[in-house]
Amino acid sequence: xxxxxxxxxxxxxxxxxxxxxxxxxxxxxxxxxxxxxxxxxxxxxxxxxxxxxxxxxxxxxxxxxxxxxxxxxxxxxxxxxxxxxxxxxxxxxxxxxxxxxxxxxxxxxxxxxxxxxxxx
Length: 120
Hints:
The protein has 120 residues and is mostly helical. The chain has one domain. The protein is built from four helices and two strands. Strands 1-2 form a two-stranded antiparallel sheet. Helix 1 crosses helix 2 and helix 2 packs across helix 3. The longest helix is centred in the middle third of the chain and has 42 residues. The chain is elongated, with a radius of gyration of 20 Å. It starts with a strand and ends in a 10-residue tail after the last helix.
């Protein structure tokens, strides 16, 4: 199965197995394993695509507010925890709009300075 990333194929995942005297139970087990492998691969693809957005979002926060990488990541985590979307969605929103969804945690706002919108 190809592993696409940002419009390019960066690798492939091959799965191999040898079966002897396949019965119905064994066929069902193989099908479950195959479905699980495909599901895991799909999650892996999403994670790889999401990583780029998360890194970009951290960079935006670091540059805009002159903060360290771990502080920028903490802002993204808090926004995700407080507003309930996945971290990758919070990062994508920041990259797309330049704004982090409101965290509801005023301590983060008070510790930041800089130009440009940060929270909605």
